[in-house]
Amino acid sequence: MKLQPDRMDTLSITAHGPGWVAVNGQRHERSVVVSSQGRLSDWVCASAAELTAEHFARLAEDGPELVIYGSGARLRFPAPALLRPLIEKGIGVETMDTMAAARTYNILAGEGRRVVVALLVEPATAG
Question: Would you say the C-alpha torsion 50, 52, 54, 58 has a positive or negative sign?
Fold first, then answer.
């Protein structure tokens, strides 16, 4: 699916599909963190089962007001203990499937909000 924001002054999610996501037109086949403050980095996890509190603690580095967790093709909430590093800093957290997380990030970043999206990109399955 292709996503086209009106005009973005920061990184945006421009497309995604099974096993990949594109940020500013560049395709990534691994989990990524995208910040409205201009940071793009790998999020080293290939499945929700691999997530730790440290994964979520890293998301606070840009001082966002909100973190959006894109949990893959389907909605899967992380254990509350994993979110503690963000909650303790007063950072809001929303969990969505990756498609919804990408759309929501683009809207909020386009409004100039300080937002970070962590997108879990799982390997595509043959089928």
Answer: positive
The answer to whether 106 and 13 have CB atoms below 8 angstroms apart is yes
CATH 3.40.1230.10 fits 13-92+99-119, yes or no: yes
Write out the DSSP string of 56-72: HHGGGTT--SEEEEE-S
Q: What is the pLDDT of residue 1?
A: 54
Q: Which residue has the tokens 């606070």?
A: 60
Q: Please count the CA atoms within 13 angstroms of the CA of 53 that sit on its side-chain side.
A: 9
Name residue 107's beta-bridge partners: none
Q: List phi, psi (to 5°) of 110.
A: -65, -25
The pTM score is 0.90
pLDDT in tens, 64-78: 999 999 999 999 999
Q: Collapse the DSSP code of 23 into the 3-class scheme (helix H, G, I; strand E, B; otherwise coil) and give the result.
A: strand
Domain ranges of the chain: 13-92+99-119
CA nearest to 68, candidates 38, 32, 44, 41: 32
